[in-house]
Amino acid sequence: MDGKDQASICWQLLLRIDSMVLTGMISSEEASKMRRLVMDHKVSIVDAFTDILQKKDAEVLAELRQFSYRSKKSGFHIVHICTEMAPIASFGAVASFVTGLSQALQRKGHLVEVILPKYGSMNLNEVQGLREIEVEYYSYFNGQLHGNKIWTGVVRGIGVTFIQPLYYSSFFNREKAHGYSDDFERFMYFSRASLDYIVKSGKKPDVLHIHNWQTALIGPLFWDIFVQQGLEGSRILFTCHDIYAQSLVQPEKIALCGLDPARLHRPDRLQDSSNTHLANTMKGGIVYSNKVVIMSSTHSKGRIIHSLSHGLETTLNMHKEKLLVAPYGFDSSAWDPQKDKILPENYSADDMKGKAVCKIALQKKLGLAENSSFITVGCFLSDLSDVDTENLREIVQNATKMGVQFIFMTTGEVTSRHKELESLQVKIEDENVRFINRYDETLSHLIFGGSDIILCYSLHDPILQVPMKAMRYGAAPIAITTNNNNGLRHFPDHDYETTKLAMFINSTFGYLSFSQALDEINNNPSEWNHKVLDAMTKDFSWDAECCDIHISAYTAINSL
């Protein structure tokens, strides 16, 4: 190949990178790194991309990332095997976590990909370069091999593989992603099919990252069946987002994916501690993983093991040396008052003048009295809200007598829960209160920007990340309680194995009830402002503590 041809291929690659930026497949920061990669490795990269014209952008992107990974040899190759991912399949806390953490990891030089079921209800418009792989592969289930189709694409800069069962086509071609009597069989099939695909494709990831009970059986599947099929260098990290949902099943059911119930149904393996005749799927994930990360933005390791384990205390205590606790993060590129294009005026901890402008704009938009000195309180209520509405009514009515303004916004679909809130709206009927009975993304930015306090149903909010966004926007997150007249009682947890976020939010805002927060604003404004400004400067994004803890877990298990 002469110099002209080499230059041509390099330029084709560089122009493809331009295209990826323009179509939103990658960020400008990643594009800059990729361009440097092309320029620094011209000879070897030309040899790897001689057939670039025949490939789609998604394929080229995946190969560039693989090349980057091989050239650095310092980052980890991580494969998430999960059942949801934002924004294409968002059903709970896992969705935003997988996308947010994966993007953060890639920004730090790691190669990350995701394997998902191909749901019939999936929003595929968000997938760049979606294509069906022209090869069928087989996976074991219920004593036979069954065919699957593979689809690939890129979601927010992350390579994604979708598995579509052929014989069991009804498993994921349904109106909802979960909530069916055969959920265990569906996700067990997906777990086994994911491992069969990884072996078939020749991938040798450093880490298989699994989530919740839905893919917890990958732990025993890996060690009992797959570790000897070319995955000897891989390790398992299990992230638990919901300890309460454990999936108890008849032991014989785990034989469907090729596991031996007699070998696994033991107290130190999958046998449930309380219901000894049943197998506990999540317990299997904890026992058979190299590291376990429990997601909690407010609780310590000790509190989780001894008070919030939902029957798994013995198992967690037995495996406590491999147990870590991590907080959730949020997308700091989309939620930053200094750069937020939705706000009428930007502001930062160094210059807060714009926040007063945002408050006036919020008051004007909602027809509230316009005065930047009025205390304004925002509140986002979802289907997960566990709020005593009578207590909330009393809080609001006591505060509005002092001129405090409230803006309530509901999130998600209209439910009976929202009807209860509509009833609350009728009971209050105050000129200082506004209800928005739908989720409006644009207005939510203005609520954060214009509020002094954000009332939270909990300081642990894995789905909307309201407390972290509130702190970033200079609004204090104060939790609502159901057992006292003042608002929150969220006692700090002094366990030494507590995340930085938990320590900060508990010690700064977690001990305050709503009435105490109002008293501090009115009677000790300098101390209050110091807290708010300090919170604004903290980085609780996906790139910070959440990412760091997971990288430390990957590092630890990779040396095993």
UniProtKB/TrEMBL annotation:
**Recorded E.C. number(s)?**
2.4.1.21
From which source organism is this entry? Cucumis sativus (Cucumber)
Among the GO biological process terms of this entry, one is: starch biosynthetic process
Q: In which pathway does it act?
A: Glycan biosynthesis; starch biosynthesis
SUPFAM superfamilies reported in the protein's UniProt record: UDP-Glycosyltransferase/glycogen phosphorylase (SSF53756)
A single Gene Ontology molecular function, please? alpha-1,4-glucan glucosyltransferase (ADP-glucose donor) activity
Keyword terms, alphabetized? Glycosyltransferase, Starch biosynthesis, Transferase
Tell me what reaction this enzyme catalyses: [(1->4)-alpha-D-glucosyl](n) + ADP-alpha-D-glucose = [(1->4)-alpha-D-glucosyl](n+1) + ADP + H(+)
The name under which this protein is listed is starch synthase
Segments forming domain Starch synthase catalytic: 77-317
Q: Which domain of life is it from?
A: Eukaryota
Spell out the Pfam families in the cross-references.
Glyco_transf_5 (PF08323)
